[in-house]
Amino acid sequence: MSSTLDALTDWVDQVATHTKPERIVWCDGSDAENQALVEMMLANGELVSLNAKTHPNCYLHRSDPDDVARVEHLTFVCTQEQADAGPNNHWMDPAKAHALMDELFAGCMANRTLYVVPYCMGPIDSPMARLGVELTDSPYVVANMRLMTRMGQAALARIEAEGHFVKGLHSTGELDPDRRYIMHFPEELSIMSFGSGYGGNALLGKKCHALRIASYQARNEGWLAEHMLIVGIENPQGEVRYIAGAFPSACGKTNLAMLIPPQVYREEGWKVWTVGDDICWLHPGDDGRLYAINPEAGFFGVAPGTSAGTNPNALAMLDQDTIFTNVAVTEDDQPWWEGLDDRSPQKDWQGRDFDPANGPAAHPNSRFTVSMKRCPSYSDQAENPNGVPIDAIVFGGRRAHLAPLVMEAHDWVHGVLVGAAMASETTAAATGEVGVVRRDPMAMKPFCGYHFADYWQHWLGVGAQLTHPPKIFQVNWFRRDDEGRFIWPGFGDNMRVLEWILDRCAEKVAAKETPVGAVPTQGAIRVSDLAESPDMDTLLTIDPEAWAEELIAVEGFLSEYGDRVPKLLIERLQAVKKGLS
Ligand code: GTP
Ligand code: SPV
Ligand code: MN
After folding, report:
1. Cα-to-chain-centroid distance, residue 574
2. Average pLDDT of span 311-320
């Protein structure tokens, strides 16, 4: 091994001395390596085989029932100064965190294998891509990282050429929720995760590296690391425009990224191309526009609600080469979840005979892991090393009330305020109560690796530098009527809103200005071909009194971030408030 890999081999040696694995395996990412891992996991029960006729090369993993979601209360950002982590993060002194983690990791890999997983976030030849190595004792993590990142030989070769990478150390430990910590050391570019095998806690390339560590690096280097999907919309003239969208966990990114337009749109020639469904790295280009890459290579998507009606593209990719986590199974061993179809499952996500008295058959946060290449709408630009130019940024959330179907921010500064003011109902993607409205600025509350006030300042700074900044919008697919039903049909019909957004970007359509943003004029959102017209008045009306209350709440929220909050943002908030009164 060449000398530029010395830092890596030294670190592997050091970790092995401390954690005492039975053996060390350097992963090359090959099919043969994956096949051997799968066979081992089938033999030891970590994976269960599914119906090989209907779902070739698909497997089911059942987590420990106490380990099914991200654990925000056990996730820490460990900067030297507590203030740098900000009120948005749990903080621990790095020395204390290291001592705690060293104790947990001591000897924890006895009788286990230590896998060395080199990975690249982003197209392997992209100047925007970043490297990492995850050391893990979980073969399930290895199999997932192989689908979710460019993992193995090519990544190792680039690490050797560049000489630097993010260090991630992971052990499932005993899966004891009381001995579980996800620690980030942005100043050391390292991550330590102990006691969980679940996605966002354990696949360290994803939220830990590509968002928490990367957002910290991005701030220092002048770019943005965001919790965003990237989608290309092709119009009947064959022009493709790209939209990046930040929605909190389990709020519709995967679905929007691969939507199938309604029939009238398809007949006109509209097409949708998927670039990414969860994470987006945005870089200012020489032409004054913002360019996006998806650092991931796969989808770790929410299963419940995915069906032939809601997301046919997702369903099509899931019948082969997919790892399912915590879904139910039918009597003939096909994966099943709530919302899929009207078959009844035989076994629930814990492998018990299905009994509705035990709750849903599939865990509400059950997921699928699949390569992006299996997506029928996979964009031919997804591998473009220079990324795709972004015309619009969309912020969305789950709001039963208040937030309109769509509105446009007045300008970049107002757009940053709209993003910072986002709120959404909590979901099963993280442990804790579900359905509670909380502030989730830019859908980054759980993922920003530094002080939110500094983050908003950075957003303002990036925007100021762009001669052609994307327009910024807010959307809400989740408005409910008095009976609690969703008013907007959502899913493929969200295309109707994207068309308006792109028309606004191209200055093709007028809008109704309000102090909180510009909303579509009557009839501007095409709905006439829908069998049942949704209540567009409710969806698009801005209630000045309710918004005045909302802005007071936003003001209170921003004040929690102290005098680091950009003055420009506060001034803009005051201006909007004044406009309303
Ligand atoms: P993460 O992977 O957790 O970051 O989530 P995500 O933002 O990619 O969410 P996803 O697209 O997987 O959607 C989560 C849930 O919301 C699923 O159950 C979907 O069926 C549902 N959903 C998505 N889009 C819509 C929509 O337009 N309307 C309604 N009513 N539900 C939606
Ligand atoms: C999310 O929770 O936002 C996800 C799944 O995308 S996880 O990888 O667990 O973060
Ligand atoms: Mn996510």
Report:
1. 32
2. 98
Answer whether residue 156 shows pLDDT above 70: yes
User: H-type helices in 233-283, by residue range?
Assistant: 253-257, 263-268
Cβ proximity of 303 and 274 under 8 Å: no
pLDDT tens digits, one per residue of 161-181: 999 999 999 999 999 999 999
- Cα torsion 53, 54, 57, 63: sign: negative
Cα(93)–Cα(56) distance, integer angstroms: 48
- Determine the Cα–Cα distance for residues 60 and 451; give it in Å rounded to an integer: 38
Q: Which of 61, 147, 249, 365 to mutate to test the pocket of ligand 2 (most atoms within 8 A of CB)?
A: 249
Relative to beta strand 323-325, strand 367-371 is antiparallel
Given 58, 108, 251, 448, which residue is catalytic?
251
Q: Check if the beta carbon of residue 529 is closer than 8 Å to that of residue 264.
A: yes
Q: Using alpha carbons, select from 164, 160, 142 the residue that is nearest to residue 151.
A: 142
Question: What span, in angstroms and rounded, lies between the C-alpha atoms of 223 and 229?
Answer: 17
C-alpha 320/C-alpha 286 separation (Å) is 41
Substitution site in 67, 70, 368 for ligand 2 pocket (most atoms within 8 Å of beta carbon): 70
Span 313-319, mean pLDDT? 98
pLDDT tens for residues 59-83?
Answer: 999 999 999 999 999 999 999 999 9
Three-class SS state of 403: coil
Q: Which amino acid is at 238?
A: G
Pair 155, 124: CB distance under 8 Å:
yes
- 121-134 burial by CB neighbour count: b if 16+ within 10 A, else e? bbbeebebbbbbbb
pLDDT band at 1 (very low <50, low <70, confident <90, very high): very low
pTM, full prediction: 0.98
Q: How far apart are CA 363 and CA 249, in angstroms?
A: 15
Instruction: Please name each of the domains of the chain with its CATH number.
Output: 3-44+74-221 (3.40.449.10), 226-297+380-542 (3.90.228.20), 299-371 (2.170.8.10)
Catalytic site residue 375? no
Residue 569 has pLDDT above 50, yes or no: yes
Contact 199, 300 (CB under 8 A): yes
> Do 526 and 499 contact (CB within 8 A), yes or no?
yes
Q: How far is CA 474 from CA 187, 410, 420, in A?
A: 33, 11, 11
Residue 534 tokens read as: 């949704």
